Structure formats: C-alpha cells, structure tokens
Amino acid sequence: MTITKTLAFVLALAPLLALAAPKNIIVMVPDGTGMATLTVARQVKGAPLTLDRAIYGAVQTASASSSITDSAAAATAMSCGARTTNGAVAMDTERRPLKTFGEWAKENGKAVGIVTTDTIVGATPSAFSVHAASRHDADTLIEGQIGSGFEVFLGGGRKHLTPERAEWLRARGYALPADAAGLREAKGKLFGLFADDTLTAMVERRSGKPCDEPTLPEMAGKALEILSQDPDGFFLLIEGAQVDHGAHVHDLPWSVYELLTFDDTVAQVLAFAEKHPDTVVLIAPDHETGGLTLSIPEPKPGARAEVIRSTTSKRGKGVNSKDWFVRYTTGGHTGVDVFLAGNDRDVRPFLNSDFPKALAGREPERLPELQGKTLQEGGAVWLETPDGKRLRANRDAVYVKETGKWYARP
Ligand SMILES: [Zn+2]
Predict the structure, then answer these.
(1) Is the CB of residue 347 less than 8 Å from the CB of residue 358?
(2) How far is the CA of 286 from the centre of ligand 1 (A)?
(3) What span, in angstroms and rounded, lies between the C-alpha atoms of 362 and 104?
(4) What is the pLDDT of residues 252-307, one digit of tens each?
(5) What is the DSSP letter of 354?
(6) What is the pTM of this model?
(7) What distance in angstroms lies between residue 244's CA and the mean position of ligand 1's atoms?
(8) Which of 268, 150, 280, 279 is nearest to 219 (CA)?
(9) 36 by DSSP, 3-state: which?
(10) Ligand 1 center–CA 51 separation, angstroms
C-alpha cells in the first residue's frame, strides 16, 4: 500500500480500535476532593503528590436534576454513562435500572472488585455495583451486592451484614475477613467489612486511636492480588470516601490525611499498571465538597469573608497552617469542575457520564424487564416467572419496589 492508502486504512480502523476495552480497568474516586484540598495536602506532605503528575484534565459533574450533583447521581454517571436524578443509584430518571460498570465487566468475563473507606452501601460503591431508587435504601443495596457474584467487596458497613446474609455468602465460597490481619490471610472471593459504619478516619489512626481495620492501600493491594488472577482481566472501583466526610463538617485535617492516603493508593495502583500492560487507570472526584478556598492570612478590614484557622481536628491531630487561611463556603457539595487523572491521556471524558464510553466504548444500557407474579414469602419478596422459576428480590433479579417492576440482572 502507498503511504496515503495505509494512512486511510489506519484512520478507517481508528474508531474500531478505540472501542476495544482494555483488559484491566481501575476507576479511583476521591469523593468530594477539590483542587484546594490538593494544595493543602501537598503543603502538609512537604513534597509533590503522585496526583500532581497524573492530572491531565477536568470533568464536569452536573446531574440530571441539579447543577450540584450528589454522590449517587455522579457515580451513576461514571458507572452507567447517563446523568440521573440526585439520589438515584444506577437508575435513570424514570427509575429504570441502568447496567453498572461492574455488571458490564462481569458479563464480559472480567473479575470485579469494589473497595471503599465508606460503608459498602455508600452511594459511590453502590452505583458501580447495584441498583436502588434511593441511595438510603441500604437493604436493597446490600441484597444486590451479596447476590452480584462479584469477586471482591471491601469496606465498612458490617451492621448491614446480618448472620443470614453472612451465612449465604459463606455457602457461596466467600471469605469474610473482619480485620486487617484477616484480610492479609484471606484468599479467593472476599466480602470484607471492617467496621459497623464507615472505616476509622486516618486522622484518628494517626492520633493513636486503636484500630485493627485495614487502610485503603491495604484493601486495594489485596483486591489487585485477587482480581489480577483472572485471565480475562478485571474492573476495580477504589473509593477514598472520607475527603468528602471531612469537608461536610469543615474538618480540614480529616480531609487532608484521607487525601494523602488516597494519593499513596494512587502510587500503588499506577505501579501495578506499569507492571501489567493493558491496564487503564482513571481517577476523578465525583464532585467537590465544602467549597474550600485558600486566601491570604489577613483579609482587608471590613471584608466579610468568614476566615477559619482550620488547623485542628475534632478527630485528632491538626495540620500545620503556614501561610494560608482556609474558608469553607458550604456544608454541602459545589458545582465546580473536578480534576481528571490517570495513566492514559487518550482516555478523555469531559462529562462524568463520558466515563464508560471513554474507558471501554460502552453506551448506556437499560436492564431488560421481567414478567411474572410478585410474592411475599419467608420475609422476602420473590418473582414467580411464567416458566415457574422463583427469583429473590435483588439477590437474583433487580426489584424496584417503588414501581413494582422486575429486571434481569446481568
Ligand atoms: Zn460524593
């Protein structure tokens, strides 16, 4: 072929090549992290962050219902490729379930892992794995997660793991480690919940609070060890949830030490990706929380800025303030853009809902609806299908109680 013809041939192939999904896909979400938190964390560390070298873009975060997204709608966009109503978990604006990134990966023969410092039924881990009309519907979320068949769930939220659910998981070959030592020993499929609610904050651990829970890097390392054994590759979600939690209550040290630990996890994940070709790592916060700004030490007399010397933490040691004052502008989320980072600068989502397409050529997909009769039996809801099968709500099929409709889970 002539050079011109070769070029034309390559260009014709380019859209097809762009659709091929990488073998391993890792999405990392530092929940609620804005640029100002990065600035403070860098100063506290006294050295550049790993993220400093990995950031290459920005992401817009608005949801279908608000220019200020919540975590559920943001994670739904990143996982399913469609913007939705705040509060909805992997459902569209009409409460119809959308295929999650985890479900897509499983369908494509990949192993799936979900890792978080939040409870496992938090909005972010949930929207990458299961479905609920409301992010607060913990029972629906955990039922979906235990029935998902995913290989790894690690985080908090042990109070949701009833003895019946734990027994059900053990019968299906899951190990249920309860502390850091147990996690180190564990092999095979894992459902490890290490605290009744969210995991202990890093600022508390640094301040000497006794803690037998694993850290985010320890959980991520174990997930990579297990998932990387699948010859078809894997999908892994890693959420650093508590930058958001600190920002909601204006506790800067809480956020900063969570971000530094998240940054250590980024270093570990990027090192894994270097050793394992065809691994794409995409990192972006779901939104910014708190509206943190950094300003000069002495505001002009009469300026109405409410300046907080936020050097202490209600949870333990503070961070050293050098020459900045910090000011939070809200107790909630903001609508500002967030950073985009990762190991492949050709993966360029501009909206949070571009993630599935940019990562794997995926378009948003609704789950197929199922027909049958809804029954209540033995404290659970079931679907009796026309061919006489019984499917348990959320463990076997997605049941949207708000609409009374059933959907096949991938
Ligand atoms: Zn969030």
Answers:
(1) yes
(2) 5
(3) 9
(4) 889 999 999 999 999 999 999 999 999 999 999 999 999 998 876 655 555 444 44
(5) G
(6) 0.91
(7) 6
(8) 268
(9) helix
(10) 19
